[in-house]
Design brief:
single chain, alpha+beta, ten-stranded antiparallel beta sheet, 20% helix, globular
Length: 223
């Protein structure tokens, strides 16, 4: 009997290097939380929370995306009058949708965050939660003046915690500190950047990073 051929060992692409994937991987997280869907004639999709204070937008035909910034996704939280804790986030077009879904899923967990419901209103929390997620994935930490950086073992992905305000005109609350996640590949085809303002809950950022570093690679919805 001829022995069966040994199957090749699969080569797993790091999740952060997998590209944007299928948008529904992110949109489903908002849909599962009971958010209301709005879609315009150009196929831009926005999900809005029941209290109308938080939203996620997938905007392939928006001026924002078609500009030099190429921000395909934005999310934000706007608290009530006189309240603090507003935050905003944006994601480049090659940001893995699974990671955006993990971010939204954490913010909309029915159990809330730190005894706050909904979780997107919980405030920043401790930055160490993100640092610990990076270190658990084997990322190395370096420090420069005002910036703490964690870098992936292959050197292609990193996350910065920067005490300075973010610089993306018209997209962010101009307050520091902020978070910046980025990936740069060898040929530049799947580069992406995601930024988050000061009050973005750290638990959601840690979930975003955990999805990006999942050793199983990108999710099953991939084409």
């Amino acid at each position: 009997m001829t022995p069966a051929p040994t199957p090749p060992i699969p080569i797993l692409t790091p999740a952060y290097a997998a590209g944007g994937g299928i948008p529904m991987a992110a949109l489903r997280a908002a849909e599962d939380a009971g958010w209301t869907r709005h879609e315009d004639e150009a196929a831009n999709v926005t999900y809005v929370s029941p209290d109308e204070r938080c939203r996620l937008e997938f905007g392939p035909e928006t001026e924002r995306y078609l500009s030099a910034f190429e921000l395909l996704w934005v999310a934000d939280f706007r608290p009530g009058a006189g309240q603090v804790g507003a935050w905003a986030a944006s994601f480049g077009d090659q940001t893995p949708a699974e990671a955006i879904g993990a971010f939204i899923g954490t913010l909309t967990d029915p159990d809330g965050l730190r005894e706050t419901r909904p979780g997107y209103a919980a405030g920043a929390g401790a930055p160490r939660r993100v640092f610990e997620a990076a270190q658990a994935a084997g990322w190395t930490q370096t420090r420069t003046e005002g910036v703490i950086t964690h870098t992936s073992p292959d050197g292609a992905a990193h996350v910065d915690y920067d005490t300075a305000p973010p610089v993306v005109p018209g997209q962010f609350l101009a307050e520091g500190p902020h978070w910046r996640f980025a990936y740069r590949d060898a040929d530049g085809k799947r580069d992406w950047t995601a930024q988050f303002t000061a009050h973005t809950p750290a638990e959601a950022l840690a979930a975003f990073l955990a999805a990006l570093t999942d050793p199983a690679g990108p999710g099953p919805d991939r084409a």
